Amino acid sequence: MLKSIKEVLSEDDPTPWTGSEATYLAVKAQVEKRWGKKTANEFRASHDARTYRGWLSRNLVVNPGESGSESFVIVEKKDKNGKVAEKIYKKIWLFHRKQVSPVK
């Protein structure tokens, strides 16, 4: 059964996942390698993976010594007319929910 928008938005403050299925699977594979199949099977990118600043904006901080999972985003540069002139691949680091603690 599909959830309503209201139900989805009320679930633990999800982040809109803008990545492709390929990037989702790549991050999920890294999660499985670090924390096992159970965590990977429960992995929800919109809830469990955020950048350092993404966690900080939710009053959570990445624990000292933690390293992120590598991913990327595509940044589109537009020309004067608003058309995409260039696509730039930018490497980002995502941290799992298990790697953060509340800000003190």
Provide structural commentary.
The protein is α+β, with helices and mostly antiparallel strands. The protein has one domain (19-102). The chain is built from five helices and five strands, in the order ααααβαββββ. The strands form two sheets. A three-stranded antiparallel β-sheet has the order 1-4-3. A hairpin with a 5-residue loop joins strand 3 (69-78) and strand 4. The N and C termini lie far apart (39 Å).
Mean pLDDT, as a whole number? 85
Can you count the helices? 5
Strand order of the largest sheet: 1-4-3
Going by helix content, strand content and strand pairing, the class is alpha+beta
Quick structural summary:
The chain has 104 residues and is an alpha+beta fold.
